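Escalated from tier 1: TXD holo job.
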Amino acid sequence: MAVGRRKVTVIGAGNVGATTAQRIVESNLADVVLIDVVEGLPQGKALDLAEAAPLHYHDHTVVGTNDYSDTAGSDVIVVTAGLARQPGMTRDDLLIKNMGIVRAVVGQAAGQSPDAFIIVVTNPLDAMVHVALETTGFPRERVIGMAGVLDSARFRVFIARELGVSVVDVSAFVLGGHGDTMVPLPRLSTVAGIPLPELLSAERIDALADRTRNGGAEIVGLLKSGSAFYAPASSAVSMVDSILNDRKRVLPCAVLLQGEYKIDGLVVGVPVVLGASGVERIIEVKLTDAEQTALRTSSESVRSLVETMRNAQA
Ligand code: TXD
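Tier 2 regenerated the structure:
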């Protein structure tokens, strides 16, 4: 990694992208280049963020641009560019549209920063990690999807509220795809080391896991236009932090499995050690039959998205 100032490119200056940029500079992590296809949008948000620097006691630069040459030499690229689902659009329509967008933006950004780590945020998440892997040809250690960190943060909040304890003491273990197919593992989720099933009934745990699975939809329902962005941005930033600061945090991330968890060639959310080399290790835990089946179902839904994308290109 480059010595001296660190540089993170955030692609997409919408809700998640701009908030990610804000958190990166205001937590003193790195300089940021914010890039979007819309002219003026990244420039305006970047200038606004830069003007807040004296108030947050940081000296990081925030550059807004529509030109990929400004992103050259980035240590990390966070991909949030994409469309949200519009009325009348099917999930598959969105898949194909965002496939085109992610392919275009990641190809240009990777050309400028061939050694960068890529953190994908755009939905459908697991499928977009496949697109980024194929477009760049980067090794799987450097192409990582953000979903599990968000899902587990949501689960932690719901558990903490239910028990009336600090969120800090709650640790939640999730596997699998983002949203509907997320696989929570209550027996490996703890409150200050105490397994969750000792503190909550199976029924309550199921209810909290369900709320977590629908966590994105719950917020869309409240906001009416747009989806969650504060917690998604924080989740992406915690991954950036773990890589840039070589923290080796154990975080659930969407990575390409090559035989781990008996899955080969599909991007699935699993616990990994994230450090200066990106995904430094995939942690495999022994699953019960029911958990393995749920994980397989989750990975099959990723396979069907990958097939839809292949057919669209054929
Ligand atoms: O857990 C997760 N992974 C997620 C994923 C949590 C929250 C949001 N998630 C997804 O992230 C969401 O479904 C979207 O696919 C992305 C971005 O969400 P956001 O809320 O930030 O969407 P916005 O506000 O619509 O911003 C998208 C921006 C917008 O400014 C567009 O102009 C830009 O993307 N965009 C592009 N930028 C560059 N290049 C191209 N081609 C482009 N197309 C659109």
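The pocket of TXD is lined by residues 11-17, 36-38, 41, 80-82, 84, 101, 104-105, 121-123, 125, 146-147, 150, 178, 226-229, 232 (CB under 6 Å).
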